Amino acid sequence: MTVAVIALAAAGCGKSSTESGTSGSKDGKYSGKGIGLAYDIGGKGDQSFNDAAFSGFQKAEGEFKIGGRDIEPSDNETAADKVQRLEQLAKAGYNPIIGVGFVYAPAVKTVAAKYPKLTFGIIDDDGVKAKNVADMVFHEEQSSYLAGVAAAKATKKNHVGFIGGVDIPLIHKFQAGFVQGAKSVNPKIKIESQYLTQTPQEGGFSSPDKGKVAANGQIDAGADVIYAAAGLSGQGVIESAATHKVWAIGVDSDQYKQAALAKYKDYILGSALKNVGGAVYDLAKSVVNGKPLSGEVRGDLKSGGVGFADSNPKYKALTDVVSAVDKAKNDITSGKVTVNTK
């Protein structure tokens, strides 16, 4: 499969895009040009949220022998820029077209109405109601609960930390689950909590330096396990944790396996997973098969939509931590524990 990187003519449409493959599918039923993917703040290479979406994009391209185009966001872009980006993909014939992140909700609503024969998806928003739109959302609080249990069992100081990228309801779910999980192990545990910015435009999801400074502060205050739900900014949190030889807990992707974080991986206890890649893949599969998904599609612990990665051998060696996380999984999936979202 050949890949060409091209610069977009209109700056508002994004910094660059990658176009690959050919249209059609191996069974001949699909006639679109391929998958269109528009990234959230931080873009491809964040080793977290956007890269999770890209993994599903790649899997669908390869398995269904279809093309694809993924486009980066631009700095300080407007809502109109997002509309223009999605319209560009629609006019070119990409199907499905997926906005990675809740910030695409207004653009998806606008463009989906103009192209009713195409399928659109939006990740992390359930407010766009249309027959040709799939709202791909998750129970992030459940995986965060597992992160909280792991943190509370692994800490040697009964002192842990949470760093959120932006102070918004979506990230409040991560914090709520983490706090509840940690307190289920030790009701008296001390928890540092901090948000990097009030709005996405201030860089809360795209500033490793902000993450690093915040983590340094929490570690100085005594925390020895830090969980970050902050996109690209989480790289700074992981770097800080490794520098101070304390635990970090990753988010969205299995960050222990990310090449860009390899030199810090011994200090990544685990990662609270959100199967964004699976959601992207499933939507592409449904379109290729002629039965497009629509409406709310929510991933939870029982369906594998969220989870906790255990790739680090050092985590697996902490048998009491592993046992506690496994028990928490069973408690959630059985309905014994309901995880808070606020």
Q: Describe it for me?
A:
The protein is of the alpha/beta class. Helices cover 37% and strands 21% of the residues. It contains ten helices and 14 strands. It has helices at 49-64, 79-92, 105-114, 140-154, 169-185, 208-220, 234-244, 276-288, 313-316, 319-333, and strands spanning 3-6, 17-20, 35-38, 68-71, 97-99, 120-123, 133-138, 159-166, 190-197, 225-229, 247-252, 268-274, 295-299, 306-309. The protein has an eight-stranded mixed β-sheet with strand order 1-2-4-3-5-6-7-13, sandwiched between helices. Strands 9-8-10-11-12-14 form a six-stranded mixed β-sheet, with helices on both faces. Helix 1 (49-64) runs parallel beside helix 8 and helix 4 (140-154) packs parallel to helix 5 (169-185). It is globular, with a radius of gyration of 20 Å. The model is unreliable at 1-16 (pLDDT under 50).
Instruction: Indicate the structural class.
Output: alpha/beta
Q: Largest sheet at a glance?
A: 8 strands, mixed
Backbone CA Rg? 20 Å
Individual helix count? 10
Low-confidence stretches: 1-16
Distance between the termini: 45 Å
Q: In percent, how helical is the residue content?
A: 25-40%
Mean of residue pLDDT values:
92
Lateral arrangement of strands in the main beta sheet: 1-2-4-3-5-6-7-13
Give me the count of strands: 14
In terms of topology, how is this protein built?
Elements: E1 3-6, E2 17-20, E3 35-38, H1 49-64, E4 68-71, H2 79-92, E5 97-99, H3 105-114, E6 120-123, E7 133-138, H4 140-154, E8 159-166, H5 169-185, E9 190-197, H6 208-220, E10 225-229, H7 234-244, E11 247-252, E12 268-274, H8 276-288, E13 295-299, E14 306-309, H9 313-316, H10 319-333
Parallel strand pairs: 3-4, 3-5, 5-6, 6-7, 7-13, 8-9, 8-10, 10-11, 11-12
Antiparallel strand pairs: 1-2, 2-4, 12-14
